[in-house]
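Project channel, design review

CF: Before we commit to the Eucalyptus grandis constructs, I'd like one complete example in the thread so the newer folks can see what an input/output pair looks like. Taking Protein kinase domain-containing protein.
RD: sounds good, go ahead.
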Amino acid sequence: MEVRTLTGLMKMVASTSPDQIAVSVRGKIELTYAHLRERVDEAAALLVFSGVEAGDIVALTFPNTVEFVILLLAVIRCRAIVAPLNPTYTAERFGFCLSNSGSKLLLTPQEGNQQAQFAASMLNIPHLTAKLHSAKSKITLSSINIEPSLDLMCKVVNEPSDVALFLHTSSNMSHPIPVLLTQHDLASSVQNIKRVYKLTNSDSTVIVLPMFNVYGLVAGLLSSLAAGVTVALPAAVRFSASRFWADMILYNATWYTAIPRIHQIILDHHLSKPQPAYPKLRFIMSCGALLAPSIRAQLEEAFGAPVLEAYAMMEATHLTASNPLPEDGEHKPSSVGRPVGQEMAISDEYGAIRAVGVSSEVCIGGPNVTEGHKNNPEANKQAFQSRRFHTGGVSYGGLDARFSASRSLADSAAWVSHMSEVASPSPSNDMPEGNNAPQTTEENNTETERGGEEGGHGLTMEFEKFSGPKNFSYEELMTAIADRKILGKGGFGAVYEGRIGKARTQVAVKVINYDSHQGMNEYKSEVITLSQLRHKNLVPLIGYCHEADKFVLVYEFMSEGSLEDHLFKGKSLLTWETRYKIAQGLASVLHYLQKQCRQCVIHRDIKSSNIMLDEEFEAKLGDFGLARLVDYATGSKTTELIGTRGYMAPEYITTSRASKETDVYSFGVVLLEIVSGRRVIDLERDPIDLIEWSLKHYRARKLVHAVDEKLGKDFDKKQAEALIIAGLLCAHPITTSRPSIEEAMAILNLKARVKPRELPLKSPQSPLSINWKVSPRWLKF
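CF: and here is what came back for Protein kinase domain-containing protein:
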């Protein structure tokens, strides 16, 4: 009889191989399949006691630990839905995922996760920590001190239709789309993987990929557990190249799965520090992107095992196609093999199947393919036609029913962001972060979805239309920043101080990290926008680089750092004259962007950290990765809501329409920061935000009290009042009550008088009062 649930498969393995090691953490814990089943049921009972009900969504944010394995299976066991999240997310991203999923509970390791906890607290989501002390002890949840009842779980029956997994995908959409996978989806997929790779209880593997993602979760963990395989978790709780082979040898591993970038790291480590001996591998699995033929050949030669390339998608609960084991067929270069357990076809935009050899879109259908994205009829209309899922990948079918798959350039940014999470789950001493990873070979440029040969050539041709920025080689830029002196770090990646050319010109080099919303679209926007703009108050873009998965931007060096550094991070105190000059310079460049360019430029992220200062303390507006060009007649653009909390206009938060007026609002907030030396939101300093605080002084007719106290009396009273009034007017909660940028400049230059009634006498809605549960997106902090 066919087993149609994941929990049913787990129960069957625990019955047939109770003493087989299921999960092992080197030198710490070993769980047999019988023990694993007990720990899962105990944890499920605790979750039910804590209030988790069938259909509730429970968020987990863990590295690759045994607690994650137990809790993931426990949430599914009590018929709830598990939402695994990357533990290195920012509070912004955690907030989006928790809000978008409607999570009822957040689970973290015993040491907690500050960013996740902060986001959960903003959404009033309860938080519990978990710890397993030994293989024979019960898992403990904070604040729950009862003895779990296994009798309770005996009454719980898991159905194939139960939704088990909630994931976010960016595979063919411009922003994350929820995907719900059922028990039946998971059971079908893991049995497909088990069958095509002939996994048995004689096999063992070491988890390489993060288990919050479908690649590590389904292919690495769940398919192994469903087959009785011994699964070893890294002692470092994440992939470590220096420890990988020691673990593989200890557990006599027979296979592993990874994405091309990690295969490259493993190969590089082997070439620099080869092991005396390697375990006898049956195969190596590669998915997530095309693997360069040279890398595949080197892997097979080094480790004596066939490298099987596969095509996997979240909507297919991972595996869609794979090259076969050697005994089952020939490996076809640059192919992802034959469909596994499902229908796979090439169709046109109307769903009609195309002829063999014709390039078109890959479509899939089968028991492991989700029926649709959650609460997104528009996405479903685009992606699900003729009872098939349209993947967005462009391919062609061969006469032997094998497929060659790639991804369209339009989907590249989301896919790069998605894959970087898999490649860089968290920092490690020997796993370089982001684009500091080993450079891929020239042949690896076949990875078009990561900015390689096809996409990179198209970008180069587009960029060459504009004069100014130079196309640098990646090698040249890595030489320029060889000292690795970091100027700044954030969700976008890192900015390094560098020196280029024979003259050793000092530059700032931004190496983009795709564990953020800064994908290829943002890189492209930055180059195209800044290539067309010329103003003394803009950060000059000197050059760019896109090779394989490397995206780098080169700027003129700003010796005095950012405005934020001086106002809030302890860099030298800015005099009043300097502050006033910075405000005027920012107004000037905003006027240029809104009134003097061929198209109106909407920046969307004006804030103190994006305002740089040169050696003369001249303000330079930077970071145009989110900028949008609109016709003057249009004046606004509906976009994905993205920006920084506190700097975003109320109407932008509620409608996602960015406009000149929303940039004016952000400008007003920065003016208030300049004059006061206070952050727009600083809960440790004041329970109210900066706009409310400034209005309080305005209503009391004590505007000078809003001037930065560190300046003492060393400021111009008229200029200070003008700055505060301009800031409050620009940050007016009502769009139509804000001044144009010309009017704001007139106020700053003391050429316009403002009547008191023109200022908002009633406090605007504070960013602190926004109901984040109903807010349409999540914002940066």
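RD: helpful, thanks. The chain has 23 helices and 33 strands.
CF: The mean pLDDT is 79.
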